[in-house]
Fold:
Amino acid sequence: MSLAAETAAQLGTGGSELWPVGLLTLQVASSGLLIASAIGIPAGLGLALGRFPGRRALIGLANAGMGIPPVLAGLLVALLLWRSGPLGSLELMYTPAAMALAQALIATPVIVSLTAAGILQLGDELPDQLRALGASRWQQSWLLIKEARLPLLAAAMAAAGRLLSEVGASMMVGGNIRGETRVLTTAMVMEVRQGNFALALALGLLLLLLALSINGVLTWLQQRKTA
Amino acid sequence: MRWRALTLAATGLLLACTRPEPAARPVILATTTSFQDTGLLDALLERFAAEGGPKVKAVAVGTGEALEMGRRGDADVLVVHAPKAEQKFMDEGHGTRRRALWHNDFVLVGPPSDPAKIRSLRSAAEALAAIAKADALFVSRGDNSGTHIKEKELFAAANLVPWAHYLSAGQGMGETLRIASEKQAYCLSDRGTFLKLKSTLALEQLMESEPPVMNPYHVIEVSLAKHPKVNAAGAKAFADFLVSGSTQSFVARFGVDRFGQPLFFPDASGGPVEPGR
Structure:
């Protein structure tokens, strides 16, 4: 049987096995992205608007952090979460929460860096005018975020792409445990090792589908007013 | 507003993702890739769950890494296959009990063209020496796994040192066999993984070693005295399940329908581990 036909068959019949893995992939990546945004957007705003010593160095650090290797992020989180590590008593190792944490570590620099760039791109005048018109810090931040909506959603897309495709961190802190921490990328690695290429390809197609839909939604959000 | 709906949906996903664990503490099993890659691990975990056992989180790493996880107390129970390294682990006091599970043997596989002419040879030691002498391509696991440790023992016994065409893959058995297949190289594999993957590889088992290169698997419960965070009760339940009569007879039948021969031969008689095994 041809590989293509077998892959199609896997997508059809293997659905009951494939979809929960896809759902977990989505859950972990969106949790990681949420945590990263909760930290990264305020941090990016602060870096763009603040005037304090070391600001440039911090922006440089965030820019460099965009390239953090997922497997290094995984190792750092594993060192914290292993029972022998400082947070071992939380028993978070080999759980989806641990994977979300590692992914947050990967995505946060992307969000910080692209948020700062997006806000800086608005120029100095808008923030100053908003303050002059009597906007509070919170109102100013909210209006700037709305104004920088396009680059912020681009940041989300870039981060989502990194998270969906990473395998090193998920393998290390998740352990690829069936029904618990097995996501599409780690399942692919395992199926290739076992020689199940059709199933691995089916998993890959599902991953591609997921990435396309997420970016589709984000693009729609980004473009709905400007179109 | 759409933003709010999106935030709500995302929060829902986050909550679903971090739902609380069931009351019984999960057992962390560190084991070898061959246990997972043959499909035996998933089959046994299903049976253990059906018997109402606690949740087992199985992490497939090499034997070397599994033993390290035990040394740090990061795993509760280990299924490994490197007797000397296991004995050292026990001597250091990291394990409370080590019991024999099952065995298969290691096989030398290689390209059908057999450039080093090992087909006619009788023992693994002779064959490895011939491969070294011919400076033929050989792919090693190179990951301190049970298979890699056995390979190093065989090399030491035959006074061999890595030669120019000796490649170290640093990966699991499945990946290593695939590299060997693509490069048409020789490789030392456990019989179970090779049988499972044979149909997708351009490699053959070229000889039956006499005596066979034994590959025994043991289960080790990590010491609670040494590592207070270990789930000793869960580890004992899982180890007891592995050596039980019904599991052992299941293992003896496992794979016969697909490969025409069993992948593993049961060893658990309940008695102590024989010396040298």
Q: What stands out?
A: The longest strand of chain B covers residues 95-110. The mean pLDDT of chain B is 89. DSSP finds twelve helices and ten strands in chain B. Strands of chain B lie at 27-31, 56-60, 77-80, 95-110, 138-140, 166-168, 186-190, 204-205, 213-222, 265-266.
